[in-house]
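Hi R.,

Here's the chain you asked about this morning:
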Amino acid sequence: MCGIAGFIDLTKQTSNEVLVGMRDSLSHRGPDAAGEYFLDSDAFSLGLAHRRLSIIDTSTLSNQPVHFEHLSMVFNGEIYNYKELKEKLTAAGYSFKTNSDTEVVLLAFHAWNVKALAYFKGMFSLTIFDRSAQKLYLIRDRFGVKPLYYFLDNHLLLFGSELKPLHVHPRYKKELNLESIWYFFQYGNIPSPHSIFNQTYKVEPGTIVTIDCNTLHLEKNTFWSPEQAFQKAPLSISFEEAKRHTQELLFDSINLRMVADVPVGLFLSGGYDSATTAACLTQTHKDLRTFTVAVPEAGLNEGPKAKQIADYLGTAHTEITCDLREALQVIPLLPTIYDEPFADSSAIPTYLVAKHAANSVKVALSADGGDELFAGYNRHLYYSRIPNAVRYLPSWVGSSIANSIGAIGLAGLKAQRAQKFARLLSDFSVESYMHAMTTSMSNDQLNKFINQRNIPNNLPFFQGRSPLSTMLLNDSVNYLPNDILYKVDRATMAVGLEGREPFLDHELFEFLAQVPDHYKCDGKDTKILLKHITHDLLPQTLMQGPKKGFAIPISAWMRDYLKSELLDFIEPRFLKEQGIFKATELAREVKSFLNGNDTNSLFIWYYFSFQSWYKQWM
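And the predicted structure, written out as tokens:
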């Protein structure tokens, strides 16, 4: 696990000192070693830089950048099946100088070019420079576990694991992208391929970006996408057959992600995903280390449930109990950790558990992806419970409900849910349902507060073979990489900890995409298949109880501990100079919230998060 950065400069004005500065802006991602490669050719200069967190083959021989013949590479991530690939390459005549997966990646690319990506099981963002072809490849893993940004101007290409190294370059342009701001206020994140700045993009999951070093001409190609799996017909398979094969694939994936030359642990909550992961691991690994975070004063306490699971499995368990003061101290750190606007408040406990786990281990498994694979979100359940009659009501019914919410006294979360339901009744489809369930506000509602003449289109929507497969597909393409994986990568890497996602194995994903829908969600329950697997490993009584998640009382905090800062963010002169928001309407909404109106509390948190980021980076 590491941080990578670099450039191609057609003006040849970028110095090695700038490259080193870009590299060291990522020191938190790789505190163990640093390296760089600088090339000055006739037509361009090029730099590759790397910060290393040593996980596999911790010797200096595996430091990066690495070179072989005409290829040079910097690599962030892990290839879990590297030993198997090493055997294939050795049989093909290659020899190795290290025991690292990094060297395997480079030689696999030399042997098979981009076809090598099909063989990789792992998470990665990597950059390969081909001196013979005069091309640079920017490549991101199938699910987007590892991030990779790039900035492209007429004569300059910059890239990095985060935005931080781009800021170091003197010719980087920090121009806000108004379309991305709009997306942020809908989703609480900025979806790929967009970024907060113009001319700056995220490499999309499963994508190869190829750059001609002499012209900076760019091409994008997809080497893997979840669409194909979700569009196939469901398998003709019994529930027991599906359960048995899922268990085999899951067990193999979880154990494969234990490969490391340093201590490995697991984030353990009280939920099915992490409990199943722990139960699988304890069958093959003794002294498994598990970690749970609890902030009882904030109403976040999965400690007792996680401890029961840990005690039953016999793990070496650590319960991290944080007081309210420590949790609040994370909030000012968020703009630095997440160097784009990001408003998932569960980033706070995620960072806290990563921070404390890093004192004991260098790798931690995180069971994210289970909801996308097994249909675990409430929206998957709710859709099947909406009768057909409701789906086809006249649009005026939804409008009437929307206009009546305030009059009938609904507030807070109930009001937000009622608004979403009213929006759905006006135009019901799987696409409109998913948009309503995954966004904070409608375009009309946002238009009251944001100075944006041209409202951007909704994110691309992908069709599966059925409503549930369509929902799972879009969750996998949008919410999973843009929110969940982004959150965990930044929280873990901020403290020099590698996070791994055992549920995100492409063979497991492709199989489950073809499992019949009702094996996952039947309108009465979610995660049916996973729960049956878990109940074979853990007592069912141990798993009883509602799904909690990482909810924290952010509204109460904004009215109390964060009130002064929130009021500063609606100061008229500040808003006028900023020019993004409609000052009068925005100030009225914030003051209404501070006076107890929870109708738009989520929007207020998004606003606070955006302005905190703006204060840090603009």
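The CA atoms of residues 35 and 574 lie 42 Å apart.

Let me know if you need anything else.
M.
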